[in-house]
């Protein structure tokens, strides 16, 4: 897919606001989170890759949020351990 249009993405997302939020989260994951793209990178910027994934139907809110939760669990576990040790 050479160009990604909003209409291509809106086939898989309810509205433009949700599209912006989803593309932002996914592009941030690709750029800084070390997440692997689900489409060929093709020398594009992370935002374009995120939009291509959304247009292809490979990424939705549930997938992005699930990846965020899995990523945050070890961080919270460390804080819980500290709090439990201090309480004793």
TrEMBL record:
Keywords of the record: DNA-directed RNA polymerase, Nucleotidyltransferase, Transcription, Transferase
Catalytic activity: RNA(n) + a ribonucleoside 5'-triphosphate = RNA(n+1) + diphosphate
Top-level taxon of the source organism: Bacteria
GO biological processes: DNA-templated transcription
GO terms for MF: DNA binding; DNA-directed RNA polymerase activity
InterPro entries xref list: DNA-dir_RNA_pol_omega, Pol_omega/Rpo6/RPB6, RPB6/omega-like_sf
The enzyme's E.C. designation: 2.7.7.6
Xref: Pfam families: RNA_pol_Rpb6
Cellular component aspect of the GO annotation: DNA-directed RNA polymerase complex
Family as reported in the entry's similarity comment: Belongs to the RNA polymerase subunit omega family.
Role this protein plays: Promotes RNA polymerase assembly. Latches the N- and C-terminal regions of the beta' subunit thereby facilitating its interaction with the beta and alpha subunits.
Binding partners and assembly: The RNAP catalytic core consists of 2 alpha, 1 beta, 1 beta' and 1 omega subunit. When a sigma factor is associated with the core the holoenzyme is formed, which can initiate transcription.
The name this protein goes by in its record: DNA-directed RNA polymerase subunit omega
């Amino acid at each position: 897919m050479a160009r990604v249009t909003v209409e291509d993405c809106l086939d898989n997302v309810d509205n433009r606001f949700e599209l912006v939020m989803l593309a932002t989260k996914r592009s941030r994951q690709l750029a800084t989170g070390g997440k692997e793209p689900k489409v060929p990178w093709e020398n594009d910027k992370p935002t374009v890759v995120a939009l291509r994934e959304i247009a292809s139907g490979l990424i939705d809110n549930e997938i992005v949020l699930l990846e965020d939760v899995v990523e945050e669990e070890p961080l919270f576990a460390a804080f819980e351990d500290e709090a439990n040790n201090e309480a004793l």
